[in-house]
Amino acid sequence: xxxxxxxxxxxxxxxxxxxxxxxxxxxxxxxxxxxxxxxxxxxxxxxxxxxxxxxxxxxxxxxxxxxxxxxxxxxxxxxxxxxxxxxxxxxxxxxxxxxxxxxxxxxxxxxxxxxxxxxxxxxxxxxxxxxxxxxxxxxxxxxxxxxxxxxxxxxxxxxxxxxxxxxxxxxxxxxxxxxxxxxxxxxxxxxxxxxxxxxxxxxxxxxxxxxxxxxxxxxxxxxxxxxxxxxxxxxxxxxxxxxxx
Length: 245
Known about the structure:
Largest sheet: 3 strands, antiparallel
Strand content: 5-15%
Structural class: mainly alpha
Radius of gyration: 17 Å
Helix content: 40-55%
Order of helices and strands: HHHHHHHHEEE
CATH superfamily: Type IV / VI secretion system, DotU
Number of helices: 8
Strand order of the largest sheet: 1-2-3
CATH topology: Serine Threonine Protein Phosphatase 5, Tetratricopeptide repeat
Number of domains: 1
Number of strands: 3
């Protein structure tokens, strides 16, 4: 049985996936603020992320029924690794070098090897193949689809990123990606803030299947739509948590 962590006040929405979505929305906000204001500093951004992560951890503890906090810490690692990757590698700004020494990973986990460890953790997750980890797998899948590269950033000819996404896809869906599913895999996060005319966000579509309680059904059907040229950050069309018996 696949267990999903829900916030009971919000019905059947996956708490972990909603938290990931909200965190990444803040990544987009902070990126836009860097572009719009040269006064925005790395400390400003890290402090904002720290506030969000603290609130999310409290929420996971409150609604996670014991195991929720350990699940959230895994998602928190993915989120911090993704944000670090963005603010070190994807933005040409004055604080990118300083961010390497004071990354979110260093601040919250006292480590500095997410570029490797991110993929080690996926390997362990897929080796164990525990259905309870389906939501965590979906978070890793989202992070890779949004452009996390880690150690493979320096290996542009490597096929490993595609293989990781396919393996996660098979674990989440219980089937191989077909021609429709393969559209999920290309890099969706190609956004260079130094070229304002080219700023845009592509579409990310994630489908994943799971079980809520004793019901076999659809765990995720979500569309995340990123706005492009206007400065409006993004619209999220989300129908997470549909289930069928």
